[in-house]
Structures
1.
Amino acid sequence: MLPDHITQVRRFNRLVTQRAGALDDHFLGRDRPLGESRVLFEIGPHGADLRDLRARLGLDSGYLSRLVQSLASAGLVTLRSGPEDERVRRADLTPAGLAEVAEMDRRSDQAANAILSPLSESQRERLVAAMTEVHRLLQAAGARIERVDPASRPARWCVTRYYAELAERFEDGFDPGRSIAAGDAEMRPPLGAFLVASVDGEPVACGAVKTIAPDIGSLKRMWVADAARGLGFGRRMLAALEREARALGLTTIRLETNHALAEAIRLYRSSGYAEVAPFNTDPYADHWFEKHLHDA
């Protein structure tokens, strides 16, 4: 990492906290520290599971629990067991909590307007565009890639959207039943692995590797959400899957893909995958690739 880059990030952080008003002890809240105000906002009018809040905000469970308990003691939040799992606690705003969030929204709008109003229209457009790009890049920087069970909710969510995209992009649609299968057991250690990339607790990409022969693995379910494209998630997921493959003792990775997935084909070629003769009869495959991991 270049020292100039570190210096600029620190300078940017200092300016943002100052301009946004985060140095105020009661930023956006009447008598509320920033941490409590943010949790109150994230609970929102529809409530939230504490598990989801932890993932979304990246907070330690103990710290989040203290923040929520403080809000509950102030009469702003009620706690109860989740409707689907009694082990998961859920937070909901009281009428007083809803009123405070409405006041926070009003103050937040005022703070944003104070930043934008001194600028010309063209400067506002430039600032908002730059903020949008910074937001996307900060999301990418904070993304986490983790191994999950292929039967888990995030994995199922990703695969469902992966299938929907293939059905939309392939000329004759896509039927998962016709494609070469990848059962849940094949995508669990010691036979395979299923990975999900998430940003603020929301899944944005997935991929899997499964063993198909001694020392040989196959990549499956490589997908990146539209909103996360252009941020390098595909390349990061591919690298993570190769690490999983090595951990499984695999030395060669194979994959098949369709000509409609041009960006995926470019990714594979630029990542050291060589096009080879067909090695299976998947009806949706037009290209077959292989990579020897010891050559990487």
2.
Amino acid sequence: MHTRNDNPDSGEEAAQLPADAIPSGEEQQRPSIWQLAVPSILGNLSFTIVGMVQTKFVGELGTQALAAVGAGQRVFFALQAILMAVSAGTTALVARAWGAGDYTEASRVTMASLVLASVFAFSITLIGYFFAPDIAGVFGLDAATLKMAADNIRWLCVFNLAFAVNFILSAALRASGDAWTPLWISGGVNLLNLPLLYVFVFGEFGFPQMGVAGAAIAAGLSFTAGGVVLMALWMKQKFRVKHVASGWWRKERLRRLLDIGYPAAVEQFVFQIGFFVFLMLIGNFYGTEAFAAYNIGVNMLMVCMTVGFGFSIAGSTLVGQHLGANDNAGATRSGWRSMFMAMLSMGALGVLVIIYAQDLATFFIGDDPLTIRYTVEFTNLLGAMMPLLAIEFAIGGSLRGAGDTRFPLIATIAGLIGMRCGLAALATYLGLPVVWVYAALIGDYLLKGIMLVWRFHSGRWRTVISAESVVRSA
């Protein structure tokens, strides 16, 4: 495979890069879906295990603590939307450059993305730290739960820069076809997180008992360690995507990152707003037990979503690389294969979790019959929806890998806001049991699945980036 470099300012930078900046023949081979999905699944599985351990530890402190962690995480994810958006742009542009053989451009995109994400991370820290109680207050939680949720948010925001480094460098590595390095880093992060959880949640070895806030501190410290390792290896040129000191600050490059990223950011904001509304209905009208049950059920099924995320990464990387190499058929084939593999894997795991839902809920919650009943009801519904959720992961990821971040935004607005929140509000208005509110997610996933499959089948995503480039250069 020959190396292609179309950037007008690439010659100077290429001369500055070390000799190992140009990938070897082995590195230029396009990975398979499984080669990308498996390490991504394993890496996220380790996060899932930590999440389950966190749920178990915090569950020892009571239902209020579990609800506080759920609310805190939801707010934190909303604040992280802009970092996820930059990450989406990173994936699309690095994969496209890598598929075209333009390895210098892939490195420049990585540097530009990291700088943007770091600036945004600082802004998010200020918002989250000072407005945590006001934001978490929308869930209708009691005073004690609200205080714990606000503490959780503040501590998570303190470590925003570390989260940004992990997000961007891991996304760039996966987009270049290296899914194993992020696996080893995330494995180390989670291995460190487990003992830190025990120490800070329960106050062992002379440390104060910090409960819900301790869970956030444990996560922040472990991600900081992972970020330091990633930065050190990157700056020493140990990765296939190299560290560059100059040549990355071009308006066109930054504009393309933002053009791809801002619909993903809006999608994440819409996504989080939708969940805010959904959980507000549950928390305000059905109580802390129903609110906690939702978050526990999501954690129980997180292993299924972990698998879906792995296929999302595989689809986005391979679609981007194939398009960069002008292989439209290969890009299409990669997207459909990722979807079918995700549906089969997630569907099977969903059935397994449904079978053991009662036992798992009892394990995490202990002796709380109402919360256990709500958790089982929600888990049965969400578990049955795993094949539809697999479409959202795999096809949504494939579209983003092509740079088509606008259509997933439209699908999210229609499915989450229009369908899920609309049906949930109707069930609440009619005074139906909370299981009917949970069931609103069926309409959400069904509508999004239909819309995303239609978009991918249409093939319009293949020309999104090139079409936008023509408009800007005209």
3.
Amino acid sequence: MKIYLNGAFVEKEKAVVSVFDHGLLYGDGVFEGIRSYGGLVFRLKEHIDRLYRSADAIQLKIPLTKLEMMNATVDTLKENKLKDAYIRLVVTRGPGDLGLDPRKCKVATVFIIADKIKLYPEEFYRKGLKIVTATTKRNLPQALDPRIKSLNYLNNILAKIDAIKAGTEEAIMLTHDGFVAECTGDNIFMITKGELVTPPTTVGALEGVTREAVMNVARALDIPVYEKMLKMDDMYAADEMFLTGTAAEIIPVIEVDDRKIGSGKPGSMTLKLLEEFHKTTKTDGVRY
């Protein structure tokens, strides 16, 4: 496997960063997870735009133009002869010293990994996923805005540990005042009375690229789409529920906190959205 690292391709065993890199020391950096399908990088421009928005939000200067970053992403796939892959694109503050001062980091570190990924077993897509509500609360957006896709994922990891302890794969994260934000690694949707509903990103959810793609698919199917503040009682009463993410795509949820959602099986509207979403992965992106 070849890794893109600061403008060159190196074998993964030699793809190393300094122990003084502030991405390692302090989680100071941003990243993107991107998918390629059959030689098409799905929504590459949207992912790169979000990467640069995240970098701007933490005043991190990326030493590549957006076009150069897109080309580097495609070149990484070509170098590894991959047509269907998961791409992890990371930009750190770069090496500095043991202090917090970002001015000590003169040049950002950029690396790109392309590999295979399977986030959930296939049976979960057929039978649905059981999830719980995390005891860990979502970070306050005023303190650390979750819309910034930063390397500091400890909040999500602690909530993931809540899920693992409960014997599930995912957990819903609530705000400090009890509103639904998102899951530990995915956005969340519910369907009620034929309408698709998801929390607004302002509540503390990532502006998911797959989230946006699914909302566009729903609108094309004439399904009403709304962003609403939701409590757990709203989620329990849903007719259908599913999660979205780059790695997860669309995965049905059939149970939350031991409460059955709808019929307790993946819903027809969820399955239709999944079918139509898969069609977009063949056309919506950059071909290489």
